[in-house]
Amino acid sequence: MLIDTHCHLDAAEFDGDRGKVRGAALTAGVERIVVPGVVFAGFPHLKATVARYTGCVAAYGIHPLYVGQSEAADLPGLRHWLSEEKPVAVGEIGLDTYAPETDPVRQEFFFVEQLKLAREFQLPVLLHVRRAIDSVLKHLHRIPVSGGIAHAFNGSRQQADEFIRLGFKLGFGGAMTYSGSTRIRELAATLPLESIVLETDAPDIPPAWLNRGRNTPGELPRIAAVLAELRGLSLPEVVAATGTNARQALPGL
User: Fold this and answer.
1) What is the pLDDT of residues 193-214, one digit of tens each?
2) pTM above 0.85?
3) pLDDT digit string (tens) for 19-61?
4) Radius of gyration over alpha carbons of the chain, in Å?
């Protein structure tokens, strides 16, 4: 089964043609799409989106780049959504030290509190780890959760092995399609296949052939084909394996 484990289908970039985008992905064979939350105020729109489109499921969480738009009172609200809506994961949560305007202390507070919620509800997490992998791992050691996915993974082999040891799968998508992404492509080619899941992060992280245009979940089959080529496997083998991996990481699928 072809599963996009990370796609922001609720994003404003899809407001004009969301139905066509989902329809094209379904025609291309993308049977499931995981849509992560980014900010508490957006949860109702996210809920409506996944309810409307076939094969879409929600995760709810506060993204590290949206903590400036969030209040501590949103955390009890998140607990309510986790309790009532039964999402497949808590996410997108994590840390990000790349963006210059980030508040690391505030990010850490929201990340820790959301890890505690994931542990409370025994839910996996969708992790944002951009330039913050060691810090994310530090908190996972302190607050163990029920696995999940390290989204858009681009760390070292040692860091990858540690996520795997903790029960996580690693998300690979558009960045893997660039010939210059040597470290990511090496990881995609050599990590245990059972540790890899596919994602688009649409509308972001477009694959090489889109020339920085808007990404969509319909690109996932070509992304899967790149992984197959890197590993010397057939496309059906990669689709079957990554689909199984996604369901293991997110049992609610």
Assistant:
1) 999 999 999 999 999 999 999 9
2) yes
3) 999 999 999 999 999 999 999 999 999 999 999 999 999 999 9
4) 17
What does residue 213 show for φ and ψ, rounded to 5 degrees? -75, 180
At a CB cut-off of 8 Å and minimum separation 6, what does 114 contact?
A: 61, 62, 75, 78, 90, 93, 125
pLDDT for residue 100 = 80
Alpha-carbon torsion, ordered 134, 245, 219, 45, to 10 deg: -80
Using omega within 30 degrees of 0 as the cis cutoff, is the peptide bond preceding 237 cis?
Answer: no
Rounded to whole angstroms, the Cα distance separating 70 from 196 reads: 32
Structure tokens at 126: 């969708």
Q: Please tell me the distance from the alpha carbon of residue 4 to that of residue 200, in angstroms, as a whole number.
A: 6
Q: What is the 3-state secondary structure (H, E, C) of the chain?
A: CEEECCCCCCCHHHCCCHHHHHHHHHHCCEEEEEEECCCHHHHHHHHHHHHHCCCEEEEECCCHHHHHHCCCCHHHHHHHHHHHHCCCCEEEEECCCCCCCCCHHHHHHHHHHHHHHHHHHCCCEEEECCCCHHHHHHHHHHCCCCCEEEECCCCCHHHHHHHHHCCEEEEECHHHHCCCCHHHHHHHHHCCHHHEEECCCCCCCCCHHHCCCCCCHHHHHHHHHHHHHHHCCCHHHHHHHHHHHHHHHCCCC
Q: 2-249 belongs to which CATH class? A: alpha beta
Domain extents in the chain: 2-249
